[in-house]
Design brief:
The chain is of the alpha+beta class and 549 residues long. It has eleven helices and 25 strands. The strands form four sheets. Strands 1, 2, 3, 4, 5, 6, 7, 8, 14 and 15 form a ten-stranded mixed sheet that branches. A hairpin with a 2-residue loop joins strand 16 and strand 17.
Length: 549
């Protein structure tokens, strides 16, 4: 008896040590994966609390560990608690803040291949320097005459100062532009809303049987409040979705899905933190000159290295054309005949939200022989299909499943991307494109992460059975912000989801179209649906992946 107890204790200790070692090995590997994906300012994480009425799918220990590490890696700097009602007095103020372009190394001249740095000092409404970080800042280097632009990377020093870093990639004038997207105090509000109120946007479904119909509220998380729920959790992916049960109809009479409306959970005066032209998407002025002259690259001179600029921007604009920095060469596809030949014998499946639908619309508009097949779909929600039978080209678009914000759409046509990928044979004639980001911004980031983990598993299965399938992912982009847009689709949340997406798919044989850098670097105003010149450049990147020669 004594020996059996000792053996059991020894086995328990051995397994505990093994688990500890494996966990920390995985921890180091995953932290390395994260830290080489996007510049991270590490602070103590505040993990979103699990609402007691939210139910997520079971996950593997690996997924749980990955979620913990990702949440830790994107933890945003803490802001002191806001008074209620909110006062703007001590909040970050772009009118009093400045940036300074730092001199070239050794006091010399700027050359192509160098890195330019600008130091940003944030101040509050009374002009006092801020003593903590957390502001959402974006920066670009550009020249309107040359049609040139490149995104900068901003490092938060957690003391009210920041550094913006840019690669110098063209000769001539280069002007620095720094924008405050949100003061740190606004991020505190956004975090509270996504953590505590995942029903900021609510959805509805119509239920119908014969002449009887009812409309019910639906969402990922629904408090039961003694009301019965219809459980539409996907059996294959485990993705949760619920509706309140109709009083007189069964759950299987659900026929539609659509965005119902917006719930306002702002506390007193919090809307003051989201004022266009005052403290949201406002330029910060330069202290001194905001531009430099860049000379040709000096032969044999090593490029200036920056500890902040990690990773380099994916590309830059010159004369309005997107050029890659490393990676595949981007070709210009200006002739519809060349695009058609590139797509000959190809099946292109586009999945995601309306920012991916723009690509379908672009191809449909520039290719005269690509004819859209009438599926009698709703105008904006699809699904859509276009065919060029002479060249054996098929292009399809399908929205991702809830929480997609759409007009009234039949619930039967909503399918999860992971399930769609599992239905594909794949192969050298198959191109898969997806972009999924903007409809998750009112939820805790875990929901988005878990959706990506499910899609990643499906991508791995697809590439295992058909490794020559081309998989392309569109990242998030910047947008114009009103109060409502900021609360339901903030650039801060897009930035967070962008980091998560890159980390989740890092190391897989997939290609990225960097919509974040492409919208940040361009001179056109930010828009949830980027304007046609940017869409054209994005599709050129896609076509360059399909037809690299």
């Amino acid at each position: 008896m004594w020996r059996s107890k000792c053996a059991a204790i020894f086995l328990f200790l051995a397994l505990s040590v093994l688990f500890f070692l494996l966990r920390h090995i995985n921890l180091l590997e995953f932290q390395n994966k994260i830290n080489t994906t996007f510049p991270i300012t590490r602070v103590s994480p505040v993990l979103p609390r699990q609402l007691d009425y939210c139910s997520y799918q079971p996950r593997t220990p690996e997924d749980v560990l990955e979620e913990y590490l990702l949440l830790d890696s994107i933890a945003w700097p803490e802001t002191p608690l806001l008074p209620v009602p909110v006062s703007l007095t001590r909040t970050s103020d772009p009118a009093h803040s400045t940036f300074t372009v730092l001199p070239a190394r050794g006091g010399g001249q700027w050359h192509v291949g160098d890195h330019l740095e600008a130091r940003i000092q944030m101040r509050d409404v009374q002009g006092r320097p801020k003593s903590f970080g957390g502001d959402v800042l974006i920066a670009r280097l550009h020249d309107p005459v040359l049609g040139a632009g490149v995104a900068g990377r901003v490092a938060d020093h957690l003391n009210g100062s920041y550094t913006a870093v840019f690669p110098l990639v063209w000769e001539g004038r280069a002007q620095v532009e720094v924008t405050l997207v949100h003061p740190s105090e606004a991020v505190t509000v956004l975090r509270r809303l996504t953590r505590d109120h995942p029903d900021q946007i609510f959805f509805q479904s119509d239920f119908r049987s014969g002449s009887v119909s009812e409309t019910m509220v639906c969402n990922v998380c629904l408090p039961s409040n003694q009301e019965l729920l219809c459980n539409y959790t996907d059996l294959h992916t485990g993705e949760p979705w619920f509706c309140y049960k109709p009083k007189n109809l069964s759950c299987d009479t659900r026929i539609s899905h659509y965005k119902g409306g917006i719930n306002d959970y702002l506390m007193a005066n919090e809307e003051k933190l989201f004022q266009s032209g005052v403290n949201m998407k406002v330029f910060i002025r330069a202290s001194g000159s905001d531009s430099v002259t860049v000379l040709p690259k000096v032969e044999g001179q090593p490029e200036m290295q920056s500890s902040v600029l990690k990773p380099e921007p994916s590309g830059y604009y010159y004369q309005g054309v997107w050029r890659a920095l490393g990676g595949a060469t981007v070709h210009q596809f200006n002739d519809p005949a060349i695009i058609s030949e590139c797509l000959r014998d190809k099946v292109v499946h586009l999945y995601g939200d309306s920012t991916i639908r723009q690509w379908f619309e672009h191809l449909n508009s520039v290719l005269p022989d690509l004819k859209e097949f009438d599926l009698h779909s709703t105008q904006h929600s699809g699904p859509f299909m276009a065919v060029d039978s002479a060249r054996n080209i098929l292009v399809t678009f399908r929205f991702h499943s809830p929480p997609v914000r759409t007009e009234n759409i039949p619930s039967r046509v909503l399918r999860y991307i992971a399930n769609e990928l599992d239905s594909l044979v794949g192969g050298s004639h198959t191109v898969v494109v997806f972009g999924i980001w903007c409809h998750f911004s009112t939820y805790p980031i875990e929901l988005y992460l878990r959706r990506l983990q499910g899609i990643r598993r499906a991508v791995r299965r697809l590439l295992d059975r058909a490794p020559d399938t081309l998989v392309v992912i569109r990242t998030a982009n910047l947008k114009a912000l009103t109060l409502t847009q900021a609360l339901t689709n903030s650039d801060w949340y897009a930035l967070q989801s962008d980091k998560v997406l890159r980390a989740v798919f890092k190391g897989l044989n997939v290609r990225l179209v960097d919509a974040w850098d492409m919208t940040l670097a361009h001179h056109l105003p930010h828009n949830l649906h980027p304007l046609p010149p940017i869409i054209k450049n994005m599709v050129d990147v896609l076509l360059s992946y399909i037809c690299p020669q």
